[in-house]
Fold each of these.
Amino acid sequence: MYFHTQQLINEIAVDQPDPAAANALQEGLGGQFGEMRTMMQYLFQSINFRGKAKPYHDLIHAVAVEEISHVELIGTTISRLLDGASESLPKMGAGKGGTPLKNALSEGNIHHFLVGAQGAMPVDAAGNPWLGSYVYNSGNLTLDLLYNLMLESTGRLQKCRIYEMTDNATARSTISFLIVRDHAHELVFAKALESLGVNWGKILPIPNFDATQFPEVRKLMDTGLHLQQHHWRLDGSEMAKIFSGSSPANDGATVETSDSPPTGFPMQPAPERPEEFGPGLPPELKELVDQIAAMGENI
Amino acid sequence: MYFHTQQLINEIAVDQPDPAAANALQEGLGGQFGEMRTMMQYLFQSINFRGKAKPYHDLIHAVAVEEISHVELIGTTISRLLDGASESLPKMGAGKGGTPLKNALSEGNIHHFLVGAQGAMPVDAAGNPWLGSYVYNSGNLTLDLLYNLMLESTGRLQKCRIYEMTDNATARSTISFLIVRDHAHELVFAKALESLGVNWGKILPIPNFDATQFPEVRKLMDTGLHLQQHHWRLDGSEMAKIFSGSSPANDGATVETSDSPPTGFPMQPAPERPEEFGPGLPPELKELVDQIAAMGENI
Amino acid sequence: MYFHTQQLINEIAVDQPDPAAANALQEGLGGQFGEMRTMMQYLFQSINFRGKAKPYHDLIHAVAVEEISHVELIGTTISRLLDGASESLPKMGAGKGGTPLKNALSEGNIHHFLVGAQGAMPVDAAGNPWLGSYVYNSGNLTLDLLYNLMLESTGRLQKCRIYEMTDNATARSTISFLIVRDHAHELVFAKALESLGVNWGKILPIPNFDATQFPEVRKLMDTGLHLQQHHWRLDGSEMAKIFSGSSPANDGATVETSDSPPTGFPMQPAPERPEEFGPGLPPELKELVDQIAAMGENI
Amino acid sequence: MYFHTQQLINEIAVDQPDPAAANALQEGLGGQFGEMRTMMQYLFQSINFRGKAKPYHDLIHAVAVEEISHVELIGTTISRLLDGASESLPKMGAGKGGTPLKNALSEGNIHHFLVGAQGAMPVDAAGNPWLGSYVYNSGNLTLDLLYNLMLESTGRLQKCRIYEMTDNATARSTISFLIVRDHAHELVFAKALESLGVNWGKILPIPNFDATQFPEVRKLMDTGLHLQQHHWRLDGSEMAKIFSGSSPANDGATVETSDSPPTGFPMQPAPERPEEFGPGLPPELKELVDQIAAMGENI
Amino acid sequence: MYFHTQQLINEIAVDQPDPAAANALQEGLGGQFGEMRTMMQYLFQSINFRGKAKPYHDLIHAVAVEEISHVELIGTTISRLLDGASESLPKMGAGKGGTPLKNALSEGNIHHFLVGAQGAMPVDAAGNPWLGSYVYNSGNLTLDLLYNLMLESTGRLQKCRIYEMTDNATARSTISFLIVRDHAHELVFAKALESLGVNWGKILPIPNFDATQFPEVRKLMDTGLHLQQHHWRLDGSEMAKIFSGSSPANDGATVETSDSPPTGFPMQPAPERPEEFGPGLPPELKELVDQIAAMGENI
Amino acid sequence: MYFHTQQLINEIAVDQPDPAAANALQEGLGGQFGEMRTMMQYLFQSINFRGKAKPYHDLIHAVAVEEISHVELIGTTISRLLDGASESLPKMGAGKGGTPLKNALSEGNIHHFLVGAQGAMPVDAAGNPWLGSYVYNSGNLTLDLLYNLMLESTGRLQKCRIYEMTDNATARSTISFLIVRDHAHELVFAKALESLGVNWGKILPIPNFDATQFPEVRKLMDTGLHLQQHHWRLDGSEMAKIFSGSSPANDGATVETSDSPPTGFPMQPAPERPEEFGPGLPPELKELVDQIAAMGENI
C-alpha cells in the first residue's frame, strides 16, 4: 500500500516560462528512458519478483517508490515552465476575439496548450505517447539488474544532454537533481551486480565524465546525494545488506542506505488560466467551490 | 513524496493457476480503462491542477494514490494466476529437451511465458501495450470530473464482465474488491459534480444493477466498502469537505471520507521457476545471494 | 453533405452465433485493407482532390460513399455473429455468481465481450486498432488510382481467404457480397487508369481465379453486380464519362455507371444482453425510456 | 445506406495560406477528440445499438451522419489553409533546381508537403495518426451517452483554444461553426441523459463561458444554431421524442429537432500544384483527361 | 555495400506444419528482442559510429551483418512451419465452397493465413508489429555495448523458453542454432566491455545454465560454435583485435574471430498454395511465367 | 547469407550541417515509403516467395539487397547533416554550464540530439517510429509486384519533394541518387508486370515529369543509371530473363541487368562529439581503446 505527504522531493527554482524547455523535459518524464518508465519498470519487477532474495527485491522496490516522487517532481516542473507561456488574458479581450494562445503554433509541443491546459503530459519530447512495451521485466535477476543499470545510465545521459540545451533555472534545478539521483541509482544496480561477482573497473558512472563541471550538479554532489539511497518504506527494508560499503565505481567512495527520508519541499498551487478554460468554472459555480474550500475540514 | 508499507490492500484467495483468467485480468491492469490508467490519469490531474479549490485537488489525488495500490494488487493477482501454469520441471528433464512451457502456445497471452516469467505485464487482454494517450487531463475541472466518473463506471462495467467470465477464486477475490472500489470512486466523482449543482437522479452507480447478486461482491458491500474513501495522506487532506453526507446515488445511503487506512494483508514471495530461468542464478551465484539474504540487517 | 436511409446495402443471412468468424470479419472492417480504410482513403482523396478532372473526382467519391454503407453492413454482420455467443442469462442466475461470458476466454477476440457488448470494433482480426497512417493520398492522380486498384484487389483477396475459413451463412452472405463489390471497384479504378493509357491485358481481376466456384458469389455475379457502380449522389455525377463501355478486364464484358441506388434491406434492432449490461438500464429507467419510445413522433 | 450532395455544411471564408493554422486544425479533424473520432464513435454505437429504444438510437445516429459532413468541412478547410503555402513554381524554375517547398522545413507538419500534396491528413496536431482505440462503445446506454457528452465538450474546449491560436479567417470560419455545433451536440446528449433523470444544474455547456465574446461564434449563435439538430435521414427519425422542449442547460432556451437539412454551400475545386506533382499528369495524359472531362455526361 | 549468396546460414530440419510453433518463433523474428531488432540496432550503431576505435565499429558491424542472415533463416523457418497448415485444396473443391483455411480461426496468428500466404511477418508472437523505437543507439560506446550484451542475453533467454514450448524439429533446428549464436554474440559484446576494464566474474552467459541439457543445442556447442565470430566482410575487419583470447565468461575457453564464412545450406523453393492465391496466376499467365523461367539466362 | 564491403553505394557531397534537412531525409529512411520499408518488404517477399518462377524471385531479391545499401547511404547522409549542428564544445566550457545543444530546441527533430548523438534514427520526418505493418507481402505475385511499383513511385515522388525543400549539397547528392534508383526500380517492377501482359502506355515513370530539370539528377541520368539493375549476388541470378530489352516506359530506351556491382565510395569515420558524450570514454578508457586500435590485426 502506498501513502503520500504533500511535499516535493526537491525544490524547483523560479524562472521565466519556457515551453521549448518544457518540451525537452518531457523526454525525462514520458520518454522511453524517462521517470514514468523507470517507475513502472521497477514496480512490475517488484510485483513479479521470484525467489527468496528479499534484499534484491527491496533494493529494486526502493528505487521504484522514489521514481513516483520523480514523476511528481518533473511533471510539476514542466507545468511551471509552461504556465504563463500564453499571452496574458487582457490581450485576448472580452468580445474581441484575440489570440492569447498564438505562441502554441511555434514553440514546443502544441498539445501542451491545446490538449492540456499548460500542463505536463505522458509523452516524450517528440510527442510520442508513453508505451507499455517500454517496461522490461524478464524475470531473470541478472538480466533485470543489468537492464536497470543501462536504463539509469541512459536516463542520466539524456538529462546531461537536456542540461546542455537550456539554462532556464526552473528546468535546470530539476534536471540537475535527476542527474545526481540517476547517478545514485546506477550505483545501486551496479552494486547489486557486484554482489554477484562483477567488477566494473572504471566504467562507472556512465557516461563517465566530470559532472561537477555542471555547477548546479556540483552543488548537489558536494552533499553526497549521489552516494545515498533511502528505502521509502514505512516498515523497514533489507536493501542495506547489498547497498553499503565501497562504491562499485571503484573510486574510494562509500555508498549507504539511509533509513530516513530526505527533507521535502512545499508544493505550490498553480494559478487559474482563463484562456485555457482551466479550471474554467463560471462565476456562480466558482462561488459554490469557494464556499466548500472555505469550510472547516471534516464537516 | 510517496511511501510504502509491505501490505496488499486486499487479500488474494488461493486457487489453481489459470492463464486464461490471468489474461482477462490484464484488461483491469493495463487496459484502456484499467488501474494503470486511472492511476496515471489522476496523478497527472493532481500534478497539473489549477486554482485554489484544494478540496477538489485532494479528492482526485486520494483516488490516485489508492490506484497505485490497486496496480500492486491486480498485478500480484495476475502473477499468482500464472504461477505454475507451466508443467513441472521434472517433465522437462535434464538433458532430455522436454517442453514444460508448451501450454503457452494455446492459452491466454503467450508473452506471459515468453517475454515475462509468468508475471503481470503492462498490456490489455488483447495484448495491446498501455498507451500514454489514454490519460485524459483537459485542465477544465468539470470535464475532468465528468471523465473520471465515466472512467470509473467503465472500469466497473468491465470488471463485472470479467467476473462473469471466470469463477477462479484467486481472480474473483480481486475482481470483486475492485468492483466495489470502482463503485466508491464513482460516488467520489459524482459527489464532486453534485457539489457543482448536478443531480444524478437514479442513474448511479453505472452500470445500475444489483451487484449483490455476485456473492463475493455482496460480502464486501455488506461492510459498506463502496461508501468510504480514505485519503492516503500522512499529513491530512481536505477531501472530506466534499465527500461526506448523502450519497449522490440518491438512495438514502451516506458516504464518508475515512482518516484511517484500511487494514492491509501480508505479501507472499513467489517461488522460483527454473523453466523460466527466473530468477535463474547458477548454484554458485545463488550461494552468494543466500549469504547476503542471511545477513543481519543494516550491516 | 451526407444523408442516410435506414436500409442495409445487402441482406444478412440468419445463422448461429460464431465469435471466431466474427473475429475473422474484423479484418474486413478494421484491417489495413478493410472497409474503414477504403472509406477514409477515398474520402480524403476526394476532399484533397486537385485539378479540373471532375469525372475522376466523382469516380473516387462514388466508391467512397458506398464504403460507408459497407462499414455499416460488415459492422452489423459482426454484431449478429457475436450476438448470443455468451451463454444464456439463466445459467448465470441471480445471486449465484455464474459465468455466462466464459466463452470469451477461448474464442475470437475477448474484447468483443469485455470492451464491447458483443458488437463490432474498429480493429483487425489480430486485435490491432485501425490506424490513420493506413490512409494513402499522395495527391498524384496516377499513383492514387494505382494504389486504389491494389487496395481493392487486396481487399478482395483477403475476403476470398475469409470465405475459405468459415461456412457460417451470416458471415458468407456479407463476405460474398463484398467480394463482388471489391471486384466492381477494381474495375472502376482499372478503367480510370485505362483512360490514361494503360492496357491491363489479362491480369484482372486480382486475384485472377474463377470466383463463381464460390456458390454464394456466383449468385451475385450472375446478376452482373460486379460490373456496375452507382454514384450515390442526390445531385448527379460525372463518373459515367469514365466508367462505361468495355471492361478493363478485356473479357468482352461491359461496365456501367448506374443512376439509381440499389434496393436496400431493412435493419433489425438487436436484442438486449443483460449479461453485458447492454443497454443495461434498471427497471425504473427502462420505464422512462419505454414511455419516450411510445410517444407519437415530433412531440 | 448513405448518400451525398455536393455541398459543404458551412461556408469557408477566404484568407491567406497558413500551414501553422492548418496544423492546429488537424486536432479538430484527426485528434483524439476530433471529427473523425466523433463520426466513427457514433457510427459504431449506432451499428451495435441494443434494445428497442429507437429514439435514442436515432438521436445518436443523427449526430453520426452530421459528423461525416464535419469531416468533409474541416478537411477541406485544412486543404485551403495549406494550398499555396509553398512558394510559387517560377521560383523553382525549370532546369534550375529551386526549392519551392522549403517552407515545409519550418512550419506546421512537414508531412503536409512531403506525404500529402498540401492536403488534410488523418493525424492530430502533434502528427500522431488517428487510432481505432479512440472509439468508445461500451454498449451500456447511460455510459455511452455520458461519454458522448464529455466528448463533445472536450471537442468544443479544444476548438475554443484553437480559436485563440489564430485569427486567420479561413480557419476561424470553420472553427467557429464547429464550436457552435459541438455546443448543440452537447445539448443533444445532455437532453438524452436528462430523459433518464439527470438534472445538469448550471454546468452546461462545458466549458461554461460566454462564447459570444468570440465574434464569429456570436454571429452563428444569434441564429440559434446551437439549439437545433437535423436528423439527416431521408426516411424520417424518432429523435424528436427526446430532443425537443426546454434546454438541458436550464437557461430558459428551447431546443428542437429540425426536419429540414440546413442550406449547403458550393464546393470549389482546388488548383493544380505542379511543385507537389499533384495531380501531376504530363501534357499528353492531361490532354486525355481534358477530353474526358469535356464529354457530355452519361456517354 | 551488401552482397548475397543463395545459402542459408544453417540447415532447417523437416517436420510437420505447426502454426502454433510458427507463431512462437515470430517473437524471435519480429519481437522486441528478435533478429529484426538486433539487425537494425547494430546497423544503426555502425552507421552512426563516432571516433577512431575502428575495431569496436567492426565488431558491432560483424554481428549486424550476421543478423541479416538470421532474419533470412528464421523467416524461412516460420514459412516452412506454416506451409501446408491449411487443409489440402481438394477438400475445398471447385464450385463447392469448402473451407480449406478453417484452421486459421483457432491456431497461432490468423494473419499468417489471412494477410500473408502462410509466410513470416514482421510481428511478434502476440501480433504486435515491429517498432522503430525498439532500436537503441545512444552514441555512447559503453552504453551501446552494455545494451547489446543485455539484448543478446534476452534474445537467448526467450529462445530457450521457445525451445521448451515445442519439440517440432523444424522449429528446434533453428531455435537451437540461434541459442548458440546469441551465446557467441553475448561473448562478443562482453569481451568488448572487458577490454574497457569490466570483469564479468561468473555471470556469463546469461541466463547462466547448462544449455547442453538441450540435445540439439549440445550438438552445436560441441563444435565450438558459441566461441567463434566471422566478420562477414569481403574486404577484411579489425574486430579480431578485440575478440580473441580468453573467453569473458572466465571459464577457461578461448574465443576467436574467424576469417572464413561458415558453410551455407541450399535454399528450397516453397510450393504453390492455391487456397491462398499464392502466387495465384491463372493458367494463361502461368504459361507466360513458365516460358520466362525456362529461358537461358541473360537473354 | 549476406556479406559486406566497406564502401558506400554513392558519394556524399560535403556541405554545412543542416538538421532541418536531416529531418526531411528521415522520411526517405524511416518513413512509410522509405528505404527501411522497401528493404524489409522485399526481404519478406523473397523469404516467403512461392512457386517455381525463380526469375521473379531473383528480381525482387536483387532490389532487396540494394536497399540495404540504400539504408546505409541515407543513414550516413543524415548523420553527416547532423554532425556539428550543435555549437562547438568550447562555448559550453568546463565548469561553466554552457548550452552547446540549444539548437536542438528549435530545429528538426530534438531526438537527433537527445536520444541519438547526432545520428540517423528509424523514424520518419514527423518523428513516427518505423512500423512493421508497413510491410506488404500478400503472397499473390501480381499484387506484390503492383504494390512494389506503387511503392517505388511513391518513394520517388517524396524524394522529388524533398529535393525541392533543400539545396544543401550533402542532402541533394543522396536524394538525387535515390530519385534515379527509385526510377530504375519502378522500371524493374513495371517490366515484370509487362511480362504478365500489362502495357503501361505512357504513365511511367510516376510521377511523370522531366526529372532532368533537377541538375544533380540529370548528371546521373546521363549515365543511364535509371536503366540498369545489378543483381547483388555473388553466385548469379536469373533476373535478366525479365529485366532486359525495351523499357516498360515505352520511350525507346533499353533496360539491362548488370552482372557487375557499381563502383563504391570510401566510408569516412565520424568525429567524436564530447557534448553528446559520444563515444564518451574518459581519458583512461580511451587510452585502452587506442592501444587496441593500434595493434596489428588478427592478434
Note: The beta strands of chain E are 2-4, 7-8, 228-230, 245-246, 254-258, 265-266.
Amino acid sequence: MFNIFPLKGGLENVEGFYFQGVNSNLKPNNEPDLGFIRSDEEVDVEALFTTNRFQAAPIKHFQKYPQDFKTNFLLVNSKNANAMTGEKGMEDIDDLFDTLKEKLPLKNPIMSSTGVIGYRLDKEKIKAAFDKFDFTKRDSDSIARAIMTTDSFKKEIAFRVETSDKESFHIAAICKGAGMINPAMATMLCFILTDANIPKSDMKELLSKHVETTFNAISVDGDTSTNDTVMLLTSRKSQNYDKEAFSEALRVVMQNLALMIVKDGEGANKVVAFEVKGAKNDKEAKIIAKALSNSLLVKTALFGEDPNWGRIASTIGASGCECDEEKLKIFYDNVLVYSNEKKEMDKETEERAFKVMKKDSFKIVCDLGIDEGSFTAYGCDLSYEYVKINADYRT
Amino acid sequence: MFNIFPLKGGLENVEGFYFQGVNSNLKPNNEPDLGFIRSDEEVDVEALFTTNRFQAAPIKHFQKYPQDFKTNFLLVNSKNANAMTGEKGMEDIDDLFDTLKEKLPLKNPIMSSTGVIGYRLDKEKIKAAFDKFDFTKRDSDSIARAIMTTDSFKKEIAFRVETSDKESFHIAAICKGAGMINPAMATMLCFILTDANIPKSDMKELLSKHVETTFNAISVDGDTSTNDTVMLLTSRKSQNYDKEAFSEALRVVMQNLALMIVKDGEGANKVVAFEVKGAKNDKEAKIIAKALSNSLLVKTALFGEDPNWGRIASTIGASGCECDEEKLKIFYDNVLVYSNEKKEMDKETEERAFKVMKKDSFKIVCDLGIDEGSFTAYGCDLSYEYVKINADYRT
C-alpha cells in the first residue's frame, strides 16, 4: 500500500538538490533563460533522448561520458538549441564548464538546451551570467521559467509518496514544451528529481516504460526536435523506496506534464484524447491514434468545433492499418456518431456531438471492432495562433 | 522525334467524347456540381485509386466491373463524397444509372465523387438535374468547374502531340484538388482524355509510372482521402500513337496538374520544390522529401518567409533515414545556407536567402552527401487561410 499526495510548488520539495534560473540577456525583461540543478554529492542520472539523427551538442556531450556516470551539475539554457553546431558546439559546452569550475567543483557536468537550431551559444553572455548564480538557492520557479520558449505557462509538479506510516519519498519535475511536440518527444525538456532510494537499474526501466504512454503519446504538430530530453536524477536522501509506488508516482508526474504540454500546444484551445480500441494489436492502435492526433484536417475540425467524423474515418483508412467500414464505431465522448447501422448523423446526434466539441477537453473513441489492440494519444486543435507563432518564431 | 504543343482550353481538344457540367442545386448560384463524360462507342478506361482502406462507394462500384471492361459513360459530382455510405452508397449509384438509362444507352457506367464524407447522395436533386444534361455538348469549362470543391481556380490542360509531319494525337485533362493533398493522392480527381491509339497495357503502365513523380510527389497537408482518382480514357479516334511521345505528354499533363494543385493548396501562397539528393537511395530520398513537404514547422516557416534551415535539418534528422551533420548541405535555390564548413549564416547569406523566400516559387535543395538517391517533392506554405478554410469546411 502506498499513497501519492500532490504538493505545492516544484523541485523544492525534493531534498539534496539546489537549482535556480537567471537572466543571461538572451531573453528580454530580465526573464530567466539560464539555470542550473546541482547537488553536493554526485548523483545517479538517467536520460532518454530524441530519436532525431541530428542530436544536439549537449546530448552528444552527455553521451561521451562512460555508462552509469554520476554528476553533480546540470546547466540548462533556452533561446539557443546548440544543435547542428558540430564539434564546436561540444567544445563550447566544455569551455563553459571550464569557466564554471573556477566557482565550484564540477564532476561530469552536463548541459541541456532548447531554442533555435544552427547557431553557436553566446558564451560571453552565458559566462557573464554565471556571476548571478547563487549555488545555495532552491528556486524552482526561476529555473522552470528559464527553460520556457514558446510555452505560455511554466510546468512544475511535485508529489510526496507515502510507502508506510513513517516512510515517504518525494518526486518533482519541471518541464518545457509547447510546439513541435510529437510521437518522439519533440523540443521537450523534462527534469525529474527524486530523493527516493531507487536502484540505478530501476531508473532506466521505469523511465523507458512510462515515456511510451506519456510523452510519446502526445502530439502538437508531428515534428521531432534535435534536443528532446527526459532526465531523472536521484539524491536518495529519503533512504526510502518502493518500486511499485515509485513507478506509479513517476507515471503520474510524466502523464501530468505531458498533458500540460498538450494543453499549452501553440495556439491550442482544446485537449483531445484519441482513444483507439478494438484494433488488430496495440501497435496498430498506436499508429492510428497518432495519425489522428497529427492530422491537420482533424485538428482544424477540432478548432472549428465541427463533429466531422468523416475526417476521423478517412484518417483511420489512410493509416495503413486493418480496419473495416462495417465494424468501425466512432464516439465523441459517449455520443455514437458513426456505426454501420447508423451511417448518417441525425439532427439530435449532431446537436449532442456539437456540445461535446464545445468542451475544452473531451475524447474521441474509435472502436475498430477487429481485435483487442488499444492505445490513447493526446492532441490539440490547430488554430490561426499556431500559424502565427511558428511563422514568427525567430523574429 | 515528336513535338508537344500546348493548346487552349481543355477536353474539347480531344475527339470522340462529349462532356458537360450542370447545377443540381448542391452548389449555390447555379454553379455546376454534376457532370458527365461520355462517348458514342465504348472506350478503354484505366484508373488509379486512393490507398485509403475506406474507399468511397464510386471506387468500389468501379472495381466490381470485370477487369479490362469498357465504358461509355462517366458521371461526376462534387459536394458529396459518397464515402462511408456502405452498400447503400453503391446501390444509390446503380439507382442513378437506372434513371439515366431512360435517356441514353449506358454500358458499364462509372461514377466519381468528391465532397463531404458520411452522407448519402441526394438522389432526387441529382436525378432532377439529369434533365439539364445535353449529351451532345463538348463543354470542358462547365465540367471542370463541376468537380471543384475548395479549389480557387479550375484546372484544365490540353496538348497536341505531333509524332510526324502528318500525324498527331491529342491529350487533355481536367482535375480538382486543393486541400488534403498528400503522398497518396488525397481528394484529388483527375480525368485524362486522349484520342491516341494507345494499347490498353500501355495505359496502365504509363499511368502508374508517372503518378509517382507527379500526383504522388505533391503535398498540401499530409492527409489521404477516400476518393482519390486518376482516370485515363481513350477514344483512339486519331488512330495515331507513339509510346515515347505519349509517355512524355502524359507526364507533362500530370506534372502540370499536380503543380496547379499545389499552387491552389488551401490558403497557400508559395510553391516549393523539395529536391533531395545524395541520399542512401531513392526510397530514402522520397521519405525525406515528403517529410519536408509535410512538416508543419517547415510550412509555417515558408509562410513566415523565414530561412530557418534548422527546421529543414531537424526534419531530415527525424525522418529515420541515413544522414550526417558533417556531409549535409542545404540550399535555398542556389544560396548555400548550411554545410559543415559554413555552420552559421552570415548576414549576406541570410539576406540572399530572405530574397529567395520572398519568391512565389523556389526550391530547397538538401544534398545529404551519402550516395546517389534522389527525389523531388512539391509543397506549399501553411497560412492562416488554411486553418480558416478547414475549420469552416462544412459550414
Note: The domain at 3-263 of chain A is CATH 3.60.70.12 (L-amino peptidase D-ALA esterase/amidase).
